[in-house]
TrEMBL record:
Record domain Flagellar basal-body/hook protein C-terminal: where: 106-143
Domain of life: Bacteria
A GO biological-process term: bacterial-type flagellum-dependent swarming motility
Subcellular location: Bacterial flagellum basal body
Annotated Flagellar basal body rod protein N-terminal domain residues: 7-34
Pfam assignment, any one: Flg_bbr_C
Family, as annotated: Belongs to the flagella basal body rod proteins family.
Oligomer status and interactors: The basal body constitutes a major portion of the flagellar organelle and consists of four rings (L,P,S, and M) mounted on a central rod. The rod consists of about 26 subunits of FlgG in the distal portion, and FlgB, FlgC and FlgF are thought to build up the proximal portion of the rod with about 6 subunits each.
Keyword presence, Transmembrane: no
Any one cellular-component term (Gene Ontology): bacterial-type flagellum basal body, rod
Family matches, as PANTHER family: FLAGELLAR BASAL-BODY ROD PROTEIN FLGC, FLAGELLAR PROTEIN
Region (Disordered): 83-104
Name this protein carries in UniProt: Flagellar basal-body rod protein FlgC
Taxonomic lineage: Bacteria, Pseudomonadati, Acidobacteriota, Terriglobia, Terriglobales
C-alpha cells in the first residue's frame, strides 16, 4: 500500500457514510408522506455498500466535491462503494383517518413504514463511522507530516 492508501480508503468510507446519513435524513423527512409523484406512500430507503474493487481515490473524492485536482492518485483496494440506494419494499401502514385527503373509501390512509428509532440508530451508526474515519484520516495526515519532518 502506498503512503496515501489509507487516505483513499478513509475517503471512500467518508463518502459512503455521508450518503447513508443523507438517506436517513430523507427517510425521517418523509415519515408522514402519504402521496409521492409515483402515487402512494413514500417507501423507506436504505443504502447498499460493497467492498471496492478499485476503490475511489482521495483526490477523486475532492474532485467530486468541486476541487481543482486533476490527476487521480493510484487506486487502492479495500475501500467501500455505495452500490445503490433502494426502497425496502415494506408495505405501508394503514391508519384510520377519514378526514385525510388521501383516505381511501374505507377511511384508511397509507403511511410509510418508517420507525424513528430505527432511523436514529442508523444515523448514529453513520455518524460514528464517519467520525472514526475522519480520525483515521487525521492520524494518517499526522504520520505523513512526521515522516516529512524526519526526512528534513
Amino acid at each position: 500500500m502506498n503512503l496515501f492508501g489509507m487516505m483513499d480508503i478513509s475517503a471512500s468510507a467518508l463518502h459512503a457514510q455521508r450518503v447513508r446519513a443523507e438517506v436517513v435524513a430523507t427517510n425521517m423527512a418523509n415519515a408522514e408522506t402519504t402521496r409521492t409523484a409515483d402515487g402512494g406512500a413514500y417507501s423507506r430507503k436504505h443504502v447498499l455498500l460493497a467492498s471496492a474493487e478499485s476503490g475511489n481515490t482521495f483526490s477523486s473524492s475532492f474532485r467530486h466535491a468541486g476541487s481543482l485536482l486533476s490527476t487521480p492518485s493510484q487506486t487502492v483496494e479495500g475501500g467501500v462503494d455505495v452500490t445503490s440506494v433502494e426502497g425496502d419494499g415494506a408495505p405501508p401502514i394503514r391508519r384510520y383517518d377519514p378526514s385525510h385527503p388521501d383516505a381511501d373509501k374505507d377511511g384508511f390512509v397509507e403511511y410509510p413504514d418508517i420507525n424513528p428509532l430505527t432511523e436514529m440508530v442508523d444515523l448514529m451508526g453513520a455518524t460514528r463511522s464517519y467520525g472514526l474515519n475522519a480520525t483515521a484520516l487525521q492520524a494518517e495526515k499526522g504520520m505523513v507530516v512526521a515522516s516529512l519532518d524526519i526526512l528534513k
